């Protein structure tokens, strides 16, 4: 599970854009929301003035080594592996439930 989260973290934070809520305003019974432009968390960090230049450079170097298609394949492979483990566990549980117990 940790392996899946590690790869998923990279894929989502570096390659999946998200919209940040800028403001909400109530107009009568409706709430009107305004969003910032779509950017990835990686892009937001690079634009931030709170992050030092050495950290930004390390992030850029890490970005250069990543391939989104490869990350997606790894995510899919790890998800299949997790599903297989879950399926085996359920099958073993069902088999144990079918066995008669003599108490």
In short:
The protein has helices at 2-15, 41-47, 53-65, 68-98; strands at 21-27, 30-35.
What can you see in these coordinates?
It is a single chain. The protein is an alpha+beta fold and 103 residues long. The protein has one domain. It contains four helices and two strands, in the order αββααα. It has helices at 2-15, 41-47, 53-65, 68-98, and strands at residues 21-27, 30-35. A two-stranded antiparallel sheet has the order 1-2. Strand 1 and strand 2 form a beta hairpin. Helix 1 (2-15) runs antiparallel to helix 4 (68-98). The longest helix has 31 residues, at 68-98. The chain is flat.
Task: Please report the distance between the alpha carbons of the first and last residues.
Answer: 37 Å
Rg over CA atoms: 22 Å
Low-confidence runs of at least 5 consecutive residues: none
Biggest sheet details: 2 strands, antiparallel
Q: If you average the pLDDT, what whole number results?
A: 92
Strand order within the widest beta sheet? 1-2
Strand % is 5-15%
Alpha plus pi helix count = 4
Along the chain, the helix and strand elements come as HEEHHH
Structural class: alpha+beta
Q: Number of folding domains? A: 1
Question: Oligomeric form of this entry?
Answer: single chain
- Let me know the number of strands: 2
Question: How helical, in percent, are the residues?
Answer: 55-70%
Q: Judging from the principal axes of the Cα atoms, what is the shape?
A: flat
């Amino acid at each position: 599970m940790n392996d899946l989260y590690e790869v998923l973290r990279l894929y989502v934070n570096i390659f999946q854009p998200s919209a940040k809520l800028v403001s909400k305003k109530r107009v009568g019974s409706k709430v009107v929301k305004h969003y910032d432009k779509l950017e990835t968390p990686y892009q937001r960090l690079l634009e931030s003035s709170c992050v030092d230049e050495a950290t930004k450079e390390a992030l850029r170097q890490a970005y250069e080594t990543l391939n989104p298609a490869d990350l997606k394949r790894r995510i899919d492979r790890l998800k299949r592996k997790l599903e297989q483990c879950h399926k085996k566990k359920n099958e073993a549980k069902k088999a144990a439930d079918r066995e008669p117990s003599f108490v």
